[in-house]
Write a structure and sequence with these properties.
The chain is of the alpha+beta class. It has three domains: 112 residues, no CATH class; 113 residues, Beta Polymerase, domain 2 (2-Layer Sandwich), CATH 3.30.460; 102 residues, OB fold (Dihydrolipoamide Acetyltransferase, E2P). The chain is 19% helix and 36% strand. Strand 1 and strand 2 form a beta hairpin.
Length: 350
């Protein structure tokens, strides 16, 4: 078996959203975002070795995955508040090195210490690995065929693509989705336009799995297989701003606002500039012009709305202290850990 390239010195690595981490304890965790504490990677848990099942007091999916010689299992509801608390408690008791209290986020987050990284699966490097691999299986062959089609149709170089998800770490099945990464905002939007043209030519079909897919238009079906493509920041678009800002939870807020800027909405976290903010709780007594951003930690709300359109939603109002420029403003976080946080477009959509 060909063993994927192992990055031996992760200190030379710039953590970016989309990288999959195999830990020394054989957890499979996904890098979240671009701002990370020194020698730590803020991540979220995806798969657990079955041998550690007895430590987790939650329900798991019936399906099991095989990663090399390790049987992997996955929680049924990884992101529910109840399960998140139970998983956190398990890690506190058995694997405390994977938890870190951030004084800037003012909450405890899951992390992978650099010292615990066993292997990294970086999307562009994993695509390069597939391009060089001999004896591809049918799923891998189709994934490469699709990526090459998107590259030639869009004019975006193959080097600006990556492979993500189970295909990247060879834990896929014949029925797995093809999860594609596109590096750079402009490249992502160019590929998105090319996909629309391929839909018109009936080469690919649209796929709508959840309501927001109808607006995001980043899912499709190619040769009977579902695929999805998402944006990753290039190194030039990346800034590790950990410690630049300090955040303070204020309260839950139900709001309506106009999108003033959408340039960073295609990444995760998705960042929207907002203006003309309205709130539906009259007990909120503040200058609403100070609420400048909506930040979604939930990938579903990436690239959802365009500049000039309106959104409504429910999220966590946070005070933001810019520690470099000594400025205070507010943002609304979607995916703060509380239940039923969302944003959605308000018709008409531009």
């Amino acid at each position: 078996m060909v063993i994927p390239e192992d990055i031996k010195n992760p200190r030379n690595w710039n953590p970016r959203d989309g990288t999959v981490i195999l830990t020394e304890d054989n957890f499979i965790m996904y890098t979240f975002g671009y701002s990370h504490p020194k020698d730590l990677v803020i991540s979220y848990l995806k798969y657990i070795p079955e041998e550690k099942l007895e430590n987790f007091k939650i329900d798991f999916l019936d399906h099991k995955w095989k990663f090399r010689n390790i049987t992997m299992i996955r929680p049924k509801e990884l992101y529910s508040s109840k399960n998140f608390k139970s998983i956190r408690d398990t890690f506190k008791n058995y694997y405390p090195d994977y938890l870190y209290y951030s004084p800037f986020l003012q909450k405890e987050v899951f992390v992978v210490p650099y010292s615990h990284i066993k292997e990294l699966f970086i999307p562009n490097k994993r695509l390069k690995f597939l391009l060089q691999k001999e004896n591809l299986d049918s799923h891998e062959s189709l994934a490469l065929e699709l990526i090459k089609l998107l590259s030639s149709s869009s004019g975006v170089q193959l080097s600006s693509f990556g492979i993500h998800g189970s295909t990247s770490y060879e834990m896929h099945s014949p029925n797995s989705d093809i999860d594609i990464s596109v590096y750079g905002k402009d490249n992502f939007l160019t590929v998105k336009k090319a996909v629309s043209e391929l839909v018109e030519k009936d080469i690919v079909k649209r796929a709508i799995k959840i309501p927001t897919d109808a607006y995001r238009l980043n899912r499709g079906i190619y040769s009977g297989t579902d695929f999805v493509f998402n944006a990753i920041r290039t190194l030039g678009e990346t800034y590790n701003g950990y410690g630049h800002y300090k955040y303070e939870h204020i309260r839950r807020i139900n709001f309506n606002a106009r999108i003033s800027e959408d340039k960073e909405s295609v990444f995760r976290p998705a960042i929207y500039g907002i203006e003309d903010v309205e709130v539906f709780d009259k007990s909120i007594d503040m200058n609403l012009d100070k609420i400048r951003k909506v930040v979604s930690m939930i990938g579903e709300f990436r690239g959802l709305c365009k500049e000039g359109s309106r959104i409504e939603g429910v999220g966590m109002l946070e005070k933001v202290e810019d520690r470099k420029d000594s400025e205070i403003y507010y943002r609304i976080v979607i995916g703060s850990g509380k239940a039923k946080e969302y944003i959605k477009p308000v018709f008409p959509i531009l």
